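Try this one yourself first.
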């Protein structure tokens, strides 16, 4: 009986490792779609943008999604942006409309990092988010159903009826 239990545990661990190995890598965003009430998929926010998701194979992941043109948005240099005095001076010198535009642009940058695990019995990945550009999402957990179609990873947020397609990078 002990041997059967051990084999069952080994098979379950192998299944989880195989699914984890399947996810391991870096993927570039292809598109984001939301499903309407009729079941049709429609392009959504940042579908024309870019982004990456990385699964390292040992339980860590990170994702960034940015809308089209984000990388051309000019504010401060990297050195200036980590200098609180320069950041304050820049903010104080901006007219209200420019402040609003800047805030909208920064809010559109969707980033989080955390730990992940893969279900041993279903194509389900759980993200335990440690940080996030949305403060209320820190230390939250989300689950995503996943399927592969060739080199394309499809992640499904069934709660929001959203599908993100990612292309595997070499």
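Now uncover the answer:
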């Amino acid at each position: 009986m002990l041997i059967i239990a051990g084999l069952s545990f080994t098979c379950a661990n192998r299944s989880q490792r195989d699914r984890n190995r399947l996810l391991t890598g870096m993927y570039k965003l292809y598109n984001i779609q939301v499903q309407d009430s009729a079941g049709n998929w429609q392009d959504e926010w940042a579908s024309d943008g870019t982004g990456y998701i990385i699964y390292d194979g040992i339980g860590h992941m990170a994702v960034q999604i940015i809308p089209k043109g984000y990388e051309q948005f000019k504010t401060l240099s990297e050195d200036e942006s980590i200098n609180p005095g320069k950041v304050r001076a820049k903010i104080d010198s901006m007219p209200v409309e420019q402040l609003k535009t800047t805030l909208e642009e920064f809010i559109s940058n969707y980033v989080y990092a955390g730990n992940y695990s893969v279900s041993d019995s279903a194509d389900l990945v759980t993200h335990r988010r440690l940080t996030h550009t949305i403060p209320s999402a820190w230390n939250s957990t989300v689950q995503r159903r996943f399927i592969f179609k060739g080199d394309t990873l499809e992640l499904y947020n069934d709660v929001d009826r959203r599908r993100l397609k990612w292309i595997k990078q070499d």
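Discussion: The radius of gyration is 20 Å. The longest helix spans residues 2-23.
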